[in-house]
Amino acid sequence: MSDEQVTIQTRDGACPAHVLTPQAEGAWPAVILYMDALAIRPTVIEMARRLAANGYVVLVPDLFYRYGPYAPFDPKAVFAEGFRKVIGPLMATTGNDKAASDTEAFLAYLDTRKDVAGSKIGTVGFCMGGGMAITVAGTFPDRVAAAISFHGGFLASDADTSPHVLAPKIKAEIYVAGADDDDSYPPEMAERLTKAFDAAGVTYKAEIYPGALHGWMKPDFPVYNEVAAERGWREMLAVFRRTLG
């Protein structure tokens, strides 16, 4: 499995990224993976590797590039010290709107690769990245065929950059998987999101995973739930196969 490290020039600077590709020669659909707030680390790359093994070119950009260099985070140490204290300054450098702006450069980069098949891509995001994946679908509706959010927060908030605001522009198939108990995505927000999708005629599936806590997809998180995570993988791969091949 190839893991190529590249640098992509965006409007705001140089964004480091990993590109994971299948072992066999050929061309495959592309998927952009939007990281959670604990940034690029071995677990994220392993998840991208698994996705690539299923037949996709997977781009994993470091969305904290505006912050500058930083050491990889150990989730257990971060949660012990205080999530907002450690990660807050980095999160302040990005957001849904900035990720969408960055994606213009990501798409241009993917268009230069001979191992990428077609112009349609998929997006998938975790936690912080969940809203980004949906936002990108609404920002580039003619490029994104599918967008997936796992335990994404604030998907239908009062903020101008809330993903649900872009529902009328979305052409992609959307899959949203929420945690059973998540302050960043409470039942009333989930309802607001699905109402926006219904009003806009978006093709979507939105579910709450019983017993799963925010972050359940990540094997290096204390709340990792293998049963729920494997369910998530099945749903994700089914969406991408249906929309990208």
Explain what you see.
With 245 residues, the protein is α/β, with parallel strands linked by helices. The two termini are 20 Å apart. It is globular. α1 links the parallel β3 and β4 (57-61). It has an 8-stranded mixed sheet, with helices on both faces. It is built from 7 helices and 8 strands. It has one domain: Alpha/Beta hydrolase fold, catalytic domain (Rossmann fold), CATH 3.40.50.1820.
Unreliable segments of 5+ consecutive residues: none
Q: Gyration radius, to the nearest Å? A: 16 Å
Write down the CATH topology: Rossmann fold
How many H/I helical runs? 7
Number of strands: 8
Protein name: Dienelactone hydrolase family protein
InterPro entries: AB_hydrolase_fold, Dienelactn_hydro, Dienelactone_hydrolase-like
Keywords: Hydrolase
Domain Dienelactone hydrolase: 17-243
